[in-house]
Amino acid sequence: MTTLDAPTRTQRIHAAFQRAADQGRAAFIPFMTAGYPDQDRFPAVAAELLARADLMEIGIPFSDPLGDGPTIQRAGEQAIRAGTSTRRTLEFVRQLRPTTDVPLLIMTYINPVYAVGPEEFMRLAAEVGVDGLILPDLPPDQDDEIRELATRHGLALTFLIAPTSTPARVKLVTEACTGFVYAVSVTGVTGAREGNALGEVPALVQLARQHTQLPVAVGFGVKDAATARAVAQGAGADGVVVGSAFIAALEHGQPLGPLADEILSGCGK
């Protein structure tokens, strides 16, 4: 494989969602913290998820992840202690890129981007084969430079909406997205939760669709086939994002393949 040119990155993301839709299901989007459980094992962990994924999120470990629950926080702390940095995360992408056509998305808070330098970060991300960025703590109306640099380097952008987002905010955020829209299922942090209650998520998904034709993926709280089904069928999401459940499985020494297969089975419409 060769690194795709800039316009193709966004197209590849959209094509992944479309392929899943053509198969009658929501796209399966696993998340894993870069360098977890350690730098030697991370590539194999990522490969196990990539074998089943439609898209994959790779998180840059960060010391102050305000939107992450305790499971992902622990993974990030362990990865940082083991020496996983922003640049090392991008090197992991460089290593994975020749092995897969699955879109690779970097999930990062904005501080690591500024620590490297926005121009340098975007250049490196494009160079190693990143397809898009998910920026949970960047209001899209607060930093035009980041959006302009990402666009210049052909990187798709995804921002988050939540049940607490006002209609005006949903409109602003969805119109700023170029990859897909990330709808947070609950108010709070990431992590598996008890029950399958959707609350306001179906309405949030429909509200986002009033302002964009991009896919809408839902994350936070998905842990098994039942919760995936609630997101794919109950909320009508185009994608199902799962992170903490996989990290918890690794913490308990469990293989990821069976859990990924189970969750994927719940993505059907």
The CATH architecture is Alpha-Beta Barrel
Strand ordering within the main sheet: 5-4-3-2-1-9-8-7-6
The value of Rg in angstroms is 17 Å
The total tally of domains equals: 1
The outline comes out as globular
Secondary-structure class: alpha/beta
Protein described:
Belongs to the TrpA family. The active site is at residues 57, 68. It comes from Deinococcus sonorensis. The protein is α/β, with parallel strands linked by helices and 269 residues long. The longest helix has 17 residues, at 6-22. β8 (216-219), α10 and β9 (239-242) form a beta-alpha-beta unit. It has twelve helices and nine strands. α5 (110-116) packs across α6 (118-128) and α10 (225-234) runs parallel beside α12. The two termini are 32 Å apart. Helices cover 46% and strands 13% of the residues. It has a single domain, classed as Aldolase class I (TIM Barrel), CATH 3.20.20. Strands 5-4-3-2-1-9-8-7-6 form a nine-stranded parallel sheet.
Please outline what is shown here.
The chain has 269 residues and is an alpha/beta fold. Helix content is 46%, strand content 13%.
List the helices and strands and how they pair.
Layout: H1 6-22, E1 27-33, H2 42-50, E2 56-59, H3 70-81, H4 86-96, E3 104-107, H5 110-116, H6 118-128, E4 132-134, H7 144-152, E5 156-158, E6 160-161, H8 167-176, E7 181-184, H9 201-209, E8 216-219, H10 225-234, E9 239-242, H11 244-251, H12 256-265
Parallel strand pairs: 1-2, 1-9, 2-3, 3-4, 4-5, 6-7, 7-8, 8-9
Helix pairs in contact: 4-6, 5-6, 8-9, 10-12
